[in-house]
Amino acid sequence: MEFDHDLDALGLLCPLPVLKAAKRMRALEPGAILRLQADDPAAIVDVPHYCAESGNAYLGIEESDGAQHHFIRKT
Length: 75
Hints:
Helices cover 31% and strands 33% of the residues. By secondary structure, the protein is of the alpha+beta class.
């Protein structure tokens, strides 16, 4: 999936990946897509939940080499 911005949260545990994503999302222009890289097992639940609560669009997840790549569109 194509993205405009990348955030490496590998090695960080809950709630840090979501907190860092939320901070980065505030700085993005509407329509921009952020790829959040994480390896915390809780991120699979936390990132979609953050999107539902914040109103941003969760576009999905891709997994590669033990890492999760979450895609979020700024609304």
